[in-house]
Structure formats: structure tokens, C-alpha cells
Amino acid sequence: MIDLVIDARRRDIGGFEVGRVLPFAKHRMVGPFVFLDHMGPASFQPGFPKSVDVRPHPHIGLSTLTYLFDGAITHKDSVGSDIEILPGEVNWMTAGSGITHSERFETLRHDGGLMDGMQAWIALPTELEEIAPSFTHHAGGEDLPFYEGGGMKARLIAGEAFGAKSKVPVYSPLFYVHWELAAGAKAVLPAEYPERAAYVSSGRVEVAGRVLETAQMAVFAPGETVVFEALEPSVVMLLGGEPIGPRFIEWNFVSTSKERIDQAKADWRAGRMKLPDLDNGEFIPLPEDPAPPAPPMS
Prior knowledge:
Residues 176-273 form the Pirin C-terminal domain. This protein is mainly beta and 298 residues long. The protein has 2 helices and 25 strands.
């Protein structure tokens, strides 16, 4: 039932640490999900430096999904978006042919507090890799179906699952769900999609006789219902969907084509992806000597 357990690897991104879950050497994608980070949890005191902010940087060939448990992030991008995301909300940004964005911690800098959330990259289907860039914000309510009962709170963040459909505009069959489980609560993940995984953001759960700890993700074999039991109050993120085929990933770019990634790198170095100006031009430079690209992910 459990094919693999992945431990999140801590990464310093210039002011606080994230737990990098995907990509992983032995299992690089789950459905269309090519990247999964647990942002924090990290506590901030008021007045921390602006260097903690994520400066403007580009993407192609994917959608990014930001979802918060605690804290606040101000998102700004090259299609004109400028909005603060709060806990329980979704920022869905589709890069397509190319977008530049920044993420700033203005409220936390003023007030201090906890930052805790998830960021996922979701590869676009091959025929939609060059779609026009776009952005939508979803503040919960009817956009993100919610269920409560039996010691469980569940929110459908994106896609379709459990007979519900999120209004986040996804481009391929997928699901992304936030569970909050009370101690002793049981919950079931059906065999609806061929690729499925569960990440324990906090707490401990038992699955198929195995205990999953905080910051661990289980990847499940297809075709079997999965039963969870919370051993203590726990937060679990469910994700997966239909596989979409191999992808190259280098720096912030995802594509079916290595040549397309090389073009995006050249565009970024030449300044062709930087307008309109964001954050006074303080852009993240492309590494001059990036590591050799990995084989396409699948």
C-alpha cells in the first residue's frame, strides 16, 4: 500500500527554512505535482529585514499554488496582481509562457508572528505549456469546499475529490486536500486517482500499520483505499492525480523541452521577462553556472 516514505529535507531560502518534499530522487512527481515545499513553521519578530522576502523571479510551464496555515504573504506579479494571502486561502498563479512574481512578508514584518504554509508547483499539460500567464485568488467559502465531522475538518484546495470540486482553475485531473484530524479520528483516501500521496504537516498518523511522523510524505500504490488514524491532533495534506508525462525542471522553469528551458534562461538574462518592474528591480539572478540538468522527471 505504501510504496515510499519521503522525509522533507530542510532548505534555507535566505531568511527562513522550508521543508523540501518534492522533487525526490526516487519519486520525482506525484500526478502533475513536480514540487512541494512546507514553508516553515517559522516564528518572526517585528522588524525583520527585507532580505527575507522572496525577490522577483520567473517561471514557465507550470502553475504555482500557495496555501497558508498561519501568517500572511503579499504576492505581486507581472500580470498586475498585488494581493495578500491569509490562512485558508489559495493563490493560483499560472506561468504558462512566462511570468515574474515576488512574495513579501509585509504584515509579518510589521506585526511579527508565525509563518506556516505549503507551496506546490503543478506542471501544465503539454498542449497548455505556453498558455497565457494568469493569476487567481480564492478566499475560501464556496471556492474551496469544506467538510467537518467525525473528528475531521477537510478542505478541498484544488481539483476534484470526495464528490466535491474546487473552483481553483486547474488544467489536468488532480486533487489537493487539507485534513485536520483530532486524536483518534479515522479518515479514508479512496482509490480515485492512480497517483496519490499524503504529507504530514504536523502530528502523527498511522497508515497500513506504519506510523508517519511530522514532515514525512507517504506515496501510495494505486488501486487501494487508504485508511488513516490520527495518533494525536494532526494536519495531513493529500495530493495527486493523473500522470502527465516526463518534465525537465531547472531553476524555476518546468517544460517538456530542454530547449524551451534554455530559451527561458536566455530571456531572463536578457531582461525580456522582467517587466513591469517589481520591487524596484531587485530581481533574483539566474545562477551563472547551474548544476547540470537532471533527466526529465516522471
